[in-house]
């Protein structure tokens, strides 16, 4: 039995290495842009740091569910430049969390996020800086979506512009009654640039995406559920009488998908991610390799030993 487990472990390591070796460097790191695209992360980070205010706070819990809070209440949780840098650092921390299983992204003080901080946007409104900021945020949000954690955006209040884009960088979206997701970009003379349009098309189809972007439609929970953007509606506001706090409701909702050992939950996310992002043949080979990481691993052996039934 020990030899069998050891062999499985060796196989798991080598198949993991093969999986990663097959992926291009930028996909391995989760990024879309690197130096080969003329992208210099250090340079834009330095520029963004100059526009400070607010923070992105990360709380890793023993349950394996982390809470990421967009925290800039005096500007309705708009993203300052330093918060963009913070986000990238928090994503790195989450990428290196072996015990992690789930993630909730929320806004502070009863609203989600009102997009980019318009003061920073005005200051970097030249084309070059705008493109660099766009590449930086696309990298961070792509890495967020590619985390081996099951993620959910908890939308309370408003998710506007870049805030609406951020919700699409999570696996699921939950909305509190009375909240709104709105891609307001058209009203700003823009289109999404943080990857929100591409992800929206995947989530709701091109017809609905065109309607939401072209009409800058206010998506309430009912519309969100009807078009498949929203996965659940939470009762009332924080502290509403009789209703559990929204964060608690979101944790309860998410915990049905994060029950179990971290390596298994992470493998679940990875097979779905490869199915979502890779062409079929490549997705099948990746699925085989991920399967190799859980086959004969402790959770699998325990389940076999306990002769579990699924009634
Ligand atoms: C690339 C750009 C694009 C992207 O990243 O993809 C964007 O995101 S562009 C930004 C899109 N967002 C907006 O345009 C939001 C504009 N703001 C509003 O529409 C309203 O403020 C609100 C969010 C609907 C809230 O309205 P209300 O409840 O009436 O409160 P106030 O308007 O008084 O707001 C309080 C306070 O917050 C400041 N605020 C709000 N959003 C931003 C923002 N995105 N950037 C900077 N500051 C913001 C607002 O100015 C108020 O400040 P004070 O006037 O100093 O009190």
Q: What do these coordinates show?
A:
The protein is of the alpha/beta class. The chain has two domains: 38-259, 2-enoyl-CoA Hydratase, Chain A, domain 1; 260-310. It has 13 helices and nine strands. The protein has a six-stranded mixed sheet with strand order 1-2-3-4-6-9, sandwiched between helices. Bound molecules: ligand LP2KCY5N. Ligand LP2KCY5N binds next to helix 5, strand 5 and helix 7. One of its GO terms (biological process) is fatty acid beta-oxidation. Keywords: Cytoplasm, Lyase.
List the topology elements.
Elements: H1 2-22, H2 25-28, H3 41-49, E1 55-60, E2 65-71, H4 81-95, E3 102-107, H5 118-123, H6 127-145, E4 150-155, E5 158-160, H7 162-167, E6 172-176, E7 180-182, H8 196-214, E8 218-219, H9 221-227, E9 232-234, H10 246-258, H11 262-277, H12 280-294, H13 298-305
Parallel strand pairs: 2-3, 3-4, 4-6, 5-7, 6-9
Antiparallel strand pairs: 1-2, 7-8
Helix pairs in contact: 1-12, 3-4, 3-6, 4-6, 11-12
GO biological process, one term: fatty acid beta-oxidation
Keywords: Cytoplasm, Lyase
Enzyme class: lyase
Per the principal axes of the C-alpha atoms, what is the gross shape? globular
The fourth-level CATH homologous superfamily of the largest domain is 2-enoyl-CoA Hydratase, Chain A, domain 1
Order of strands in the sheet with most strands: 1-2-3-4-6-9
Question: Helical residue percent?
Answer: 40-55%
Q: Give me the Rg, rounded.
A: 20 Å
């Amino acid at each position: 039995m020990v030899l069998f487990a050891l062999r499985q472990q060796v196989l798991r390591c080598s198949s993991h290495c093969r999986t990663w070796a097959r992926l291009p460097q930028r996909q391995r790191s989760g990024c879309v842009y690197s130096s080969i695209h003329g992208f210099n992360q250090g340079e834009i980070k330095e520029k963004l740091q100059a526009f400070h205010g607010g923070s992105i706070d990360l709380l890793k819990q023993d349950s394996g569910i982390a809470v990421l809070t967009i925290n800039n209440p005096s500007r309705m949780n708009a993203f300052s430049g330093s918060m963009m840098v913070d986000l990238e650092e928090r994503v790195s921390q989450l990428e290196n969390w072996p015990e992690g299983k789930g993630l909730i992204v929320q806004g502070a003080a009863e609203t989600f996020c009102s997009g980019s901080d318009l003061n920073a946007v005005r200051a970097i409104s030249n084309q070059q800086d705008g493109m660099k900021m766009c590449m930086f945020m696309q990298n961070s949000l792509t890495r967020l979506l590619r985390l081996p954690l099951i993620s959910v955006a908890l939308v309370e209040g408003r998710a506007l512009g870049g805030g609406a884009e951020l919700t699409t960088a999570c696996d699921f979206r939950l909305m509190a009654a009375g909240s709104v997701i709105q891609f307001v970009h058209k009203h700003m003379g823009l289109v999404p640039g943080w990857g929100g349009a591409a992800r929206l098309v995947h989530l709701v189809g091109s017809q609905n995406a065109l309607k939401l972007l072209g009409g800058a439609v206010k998506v309430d929970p009912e519309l969100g559920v009807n078009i498949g953007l929203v996965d659940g509606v939470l009762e009332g506001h924080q502290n509403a009488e009789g209703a559990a706090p929204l964060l608690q409701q979101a944790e309860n909702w998410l915990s049905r998908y994060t029950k179990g050992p971290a390596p298994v939950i992470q493998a679940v996310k990875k097979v779905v991610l490869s199915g979502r992002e890779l062409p079929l043949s490549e997705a099948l080979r990746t699925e085989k390799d991920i399967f190799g990481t859980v086959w004969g691993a402790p959770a699998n052996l325990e389940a076999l030993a306990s002769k579990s039934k699924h009634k």
